[in-house]
Amino acid sequence: MKNKTLGSSLIVAGTTIGAGMLAMPLTSAEMGFITTLILLFLLWALLSYSALLFVEVYQKADRKDAGIATLAEQHFGMVGRILATLSLVIFMYAILTVYSLGGGDLFSPFLTFAGEHANTVAIITFVVVFAIIVTIGTGAVDGFTRLLFIAKLIAFATVLFLMLPKVTLENLGAMPLHHFLIISASPVFFTSFGFHVVIPSINNYLDGDIRRLRIAIIGGTAIPLVAYILWQMATHGVFEQVQFIQIIRNDPTLNGLVQATYHATGSNTISWIVRTFSALALITSFLGVSLALVDCLDDLLKRVNINASRISISLLTFVPTLLIALFYRDFLAVLTYAGQMFTFYGLVLPVGMAWMLRRKYPDLPYRVIGGNFGLFIALILGLLIMNVPFLISAGYLPPVVG
Question: What predicted TM-score, i.e. pTM, was given to this entire model?
Answer without folding.
Answer: 0.81
